[in-house]
Amino acid sequence: MTNTELNLAGKSGYILTMGEILVEIMASERGQSFRRPGTLLGPYASGAPAIFIDQAAKSGGRCAMIGCVGDDDFGALNVERLRTDGVEVSGISVVEAATTGSAFVTYRDDGDRDFVYNITNSASVFLSAKRLNKDLLKQAAHFHVMGSSLFSPSIIDAMKKAVETVKANGGTVSFDPNVRKEMLRIPEMKGALDFILDYTDIFLPSGHEVMLLTSATDEKGAIDELLERGVREIVVKRGKDGCSHFNGKAELHLAALPVQEIDPTGAGDCFGGAYIACRSQGLSIEQSLKYAIAAGARAVTFRGPMEGTATLAQLDEFVATLSE
Ligand code: ATP
Ligand code: MG
């Protein structure tokens, strides 16, 4: 544990991420089942790291992404969207032999979601160390890892190389485990998450993920263990119950904004993107958390995981209308 506050604005360069790019296609009604025909909405731009980097770029960060899409309209939709929102897309390869990833979502009556994924058999599988864009890596001041991206040995290998390189160049790393429990039964997966955690400066778990990679039996014990291990900041995301920030010196617990949730997908990714971009521009922890909370809340008021991404000015406006 060190005593100085983590400075993300000290090194100039890209906020870089790498991982799956996909479209999301969703049921138009709650309770709709994929076991019979129904009306679908989409395609919407998606993929956890893509949502993260889109929000980070809109928040004013200098951003780039490494990924793979197929030579199809789903890929073009995503790349165009990221480019328009200010993300450097030269690290995204078009793999002619593959199809862009997709996810089909239904919403249960209680709001829970079920997914049919085409990711592990999509263009994203072609991500490997040889697709690591050296120019972008060299220019990265910060690298963000989404646990959901670590679904193949070659991607795990590429991700390890990326975090090692960025850290060796004096950059920082953030890590959102964004992982389903079943994934941890794959031994390489647990090992990969542990490896990434050793390089992590900012850890961004959901509430139930805090203890995932620790031996602790409660959240406080897990936070202490993570800080002891060298993680500098832990931001716990708690959905409509807000978030908490720990750095070994102070604790902050902030409420969520009161909004009507329309589609929860993407809130955590938008939260993370806004937080990292704000810290990279020198905003305080508290100010950055406020924008992250606003980005998470705004995201859930839109159908489609990337449709709620917003600039800091739009987030200010959004918060102002909520308090009217
Ligand atoms: P996911 O389950 O998609 O991985 P996550 O656990 O990473 O999501 P959440 O905690 O759901 O992330 O959301 C991140 C932040 O967005 C929350 O801390 C909160 O500030 C905001 N948020 C999420 N859901 C809501 C909501 N229903 N109302 C208001 N704010 C919300
Ligand atoms: Mg998440």
From TrEMBL:
Protein keywords: ATP-binding, Kinase, Nucleotide-binding, Transferase
Molecular-function annotations in GO: ATP binding; kinase activity
SUPFAM superfamilies tied to this protein: Ribokinase-like
Transmembrane region(s): none
Keyword Transferase among record annotations: yes
Residue ranges constituting the Carbohydrate kinase PfkB domain according to the UniProt record: 52-307
Tree of life domain: Bacteria
Family statement: Belongs to the carbohydrate kinase PfkB family.
Protein name: Ribokinase-like domain-containing protein
Organism this protein belongs to: Caballeronia hypogeia
